[in-house]
Design brief:
47% helix
């Protein structure tokens, strides 16, 4: 399924990634190329685009989210560009040693269906959220064949746009056998679901229809948002979840349930989600408690990072060793949203790559 010799020569891990945003993983060169083709004027000169887009020092989630306004309008609503970024994403992950990835995105944002006025100040086109999903699936499928890895989609509801949520879950159902494996809820954690019945209804429909569920929670918000995610939205995985440890009762319950935390080391420092001192990161607690968690990039374009960068941070500042890297990747494989037979094969592939007999080796 993958070329172990090539990976070894680049000193990379054979990995699984579960939390990375497609729209946070575009290539700067692609943004510039598409802008030229579409006649879109960029906010700065080409040689300064990377600097404008990226976050290098700890800031805030608001500042981080503002970075998307500099480039999303270039890709959103353009069929050729959407298919291209999906294909290139798979190529990038293959080069990083990833053999399976779940990439998430909002079909509505990539279709340029923003609220009026559209955040990027351009006219709405004729690309629909449904077409976005088909284009991403096509790009992923072509990338899979070219680079011999597996890529699947998670479709995001947005906390600030509850009117989109029912359409998102219907798209999950429509494309469940064509590349889409789950639904997500992303955005401002201060907007609770008790006040947004549309989100709750969408996730109730997801449960009823056996659509897998993950929710951004506890990234910058309190443990109560994590509790809402698992108790109200029935989330099977938690995106980030760092602040869960502030509620020992909730944390112990999720440990016992083996709820999976999709952690992102570099992201959590640069968005202000955690103490900027990596040696105080909640991931260290997860590691010591043998929690079910994985390491992920979140938005590698904005953080100017790769999966290897996050692994290096974990090794240098958090005390990770090779056994823990293997354990978290097995965690990721076992907690992925593939159908059961494909999930078991992925776990088997990792065991073989790591020279392990079976899961009892841990």
């Amino acid at each position: 399924m993958f070329n172990e010799c090539v990976l070894a020569s680049r000193n990379q891990h054979v990995s699984v990634e579960l939390h990375v945003h497609l729209d946070g993983a575009f290539r700067v060169k692609t943004i510039i190329d598409v802008a030229k083709r579409r006649g879109i004027k960029l906010p700065v000169d080409e040689d300064k685009m990377k600097e404008l887009i990226t976050v290098d020092e700890p800031s805030s989630l608001t500042e981080f989210l503002g970075k998307f306004n500099h480039y999303m309008h270039v890709i959103a609503g353009d069929r050729e560009a959407i298919r291209r970024v999906a294909y290139e994403f798979v190529e990038t992950k293959a080069r990083e040693g990833v053999i399976y990835v779940e990439a998430r995105y909002s079909p509505h944002l990539l279709a340029n269906c923003g609220v009026d006025p559209i955040p990027w100040g351009q006219e709405k086109g004729d690309v629909t959220p449904d077409e976005v999903v088909r284009l991403v699936n096509q790009g992923f499928s072509e990338g899979e064949k070219a680079f011999n890895i597996k890529a699947r989609s998670i479709l995001c509801c947005m906390r600030h746009e509850p009117s989109w949520s029912m359409e998102v879950v219907e798209l999950c159902k429509k494309y469940r056998n064509d590349g889409v494996v789950a639904i997500d809820l992303a955005g401002d954690e201060s907007l609770n679901c008790e006040a947004c019945p549309e989100h709750r209804k969408a996730f109730e429909e997801a449960v009823k229809s056996c659509v897998h569920r993950t929710v951004h929670a506890g990234e910058v918000g309190p443990p109560s948002v994590v509790k809402e995610a698992v108790d109200v939205l029935k989330a099977e995985r938690i995106g980030h979840g760092y602040h869960t440890i502030e509620d020992e009762v909730l944390y112990k319950r999720l440990l016992e349930k083996k709820t999976h935390f999709e952690t992102c080391p570099i992201s959590s420092r640069l968005t202000g989600g955690c103490d900027p001192d990596y040696t105080k990161h909640p991931i260290i607690r997860f590691m010591k408690d043998k929690a079910n968690y994985s390491l992920n990039t979140d938005d590698p374009l904005v953080f100017n990072s790769t999966l290897n960068s996050d692994y290096q941070v974990a090794e240098q500042y958090m005390g990770f060793n090779e056994d823990e890297f293997k354990r978290v990747n097995i965690n990721a494989a076992e907690s992925c949203f593939l159908p059961e037979n494909e999930r078991k094969q992925l776990v088997k592939d990792l065991h073989e790559a790591y020279g392990m007999c079976n899961s009892t080796c841990f």
